[in-house]
Write a structure and sequence with these properties.
The protein is α+β, with helices and mostly antiparallel strands. The protein is built from 7 helices and 19 strands. The protein has a 5-stranded antiparallel β-sheet with strand order 6-7-13-11-12, with helices on one face. A 4-stranded mixed β-sheet has the order 1-2-5-3, with no helix packed on it.
Length: 296
């Protein structure tokens, strides 16, 4: 692959555990860090033939493989500009942290993104999986998405409806040729004090209920219809259950944590055990919310 002109934004043999929120993962063949749309598109064009190319935001819910030698990862975290466009709209680039966008909305006395305060992901990653918390989802506030269509070499604008949002799903999961460049959020006027209070409440709830003191990928499983993954896992007696140094959190059974020195293989094996135990006891098939990256 020709890397000429991209030397300032590419790293070879890049250790993925250094950026993964689970603190696992081996060394990727290539890791790119574009700082703007032009660089992002140039990377997409030059890596179009790569069989194991992935676009990643903050790597907050991603499990990289222990052997990542064949991977090409594009990290968007340097594309993080945010701005207030109109009286009730905020635009954020794909690499902007959701918490930062929530803070900008709060400072402008705009309500609608309080649920996103404390989510450790980026706008692009959040759009990809329709991230949500505390009864809110990005689909509720997305006005439109700016994306690059690599199949047709053009930028497109998708409305919220065109993104086919559903629970932890979007059109970007179906169409890998589309890359999120940024999103515009339509919000409503609120009282700054009320917005701040709700953000604090949500963050306090996170600290009290989630094992933030350990590396993890956040919620390990999607919420099964009519139930809660954490409750099902706990009722299987799996709190504290370990494989290697990967464990079901004692604080919240819906989280898999790294006790120190866990491998991605440990995490994957634990996911399989949890799925089997829950299915055998309750007949419920849990689906991982963690994005598991494979070395193709």
């Amino acid at each position: 692959m020709n890397l000429r002109g991209l030397e300032h934004i590419v790293k070879e043999n890049f250790l993925l555990s250094s950026v993964s929120s689970m603190k696992t993962g081996g060394r990727a063949e290539l890791a790119f860090f574009p700082g703007n749309e032009d660089e992002f598109v140039e990377i997409l064009v030059r890596t179009s033939g790569h069989k194991a190319r992935y676009i990643i935001g903050n790597a907050s819910n991603v499990l990289f493989p222990d052997d990542a030698s064949g991977l090409c990862i594009i990290f968007t975290s340097a594309m993080n500009k945010t701005l207030k466009k109109e009286s009730l709209c905020i635009y954020a680039e794909c690499g902007a942290m959701l918490t930062a966008v929530s803070v900008l909305a709060k400072e402008a006395s705009l309500s609608g993104l309080e649920f996103a305060y404390g989510i450790p992901g980026t706008v692009g990653g959040g759009i990809y999986m329709n991230a949500g918390a505390y009864g809110g989802e990005l689909s509720q506030v997305v006005k439109n998405i700016r994306a690059y269509d690599s199949a047709n070499d053009r930028f497109i604008l998708l409305s919220g409806d065109e993104c086919k949002f559903s629970y932890r799903h979007s059109i970007f999961m179906e169409k890998p040729e589309l890359a999120v460049m940024g999103a515009e959020f339509a919000l409503k006027v609120g009282e700054r004090e009320d917005i701040e209070a709700l953000c604090r409440k949500n963050m306090q709830s996170r600290r009290e209920k989630q094992p933030l003191e350990y590396p993890s990928c956040g919620s390990a499983f999607k919420r099964p219809e009519g139930n809660f993954a954490g409750k099902l896992i706990e009722d299987c007696g799996l709190k504290g259950f370990c494989i290697g140094k990967a464990a079901v959190s004692e604080k919240h059974a819906g989280f898999i944590i790294n006790l120190g020195g866990a491998t991605s293989a440990d995490v994957k094996a634990l996911i399989l055990v949890i799925k089997n135990r829950v299915y055998n006891k309750f007949g419920v098939e849990l689906q991982p919310e963690i994005q598991i990256i494979e070395n193709k």
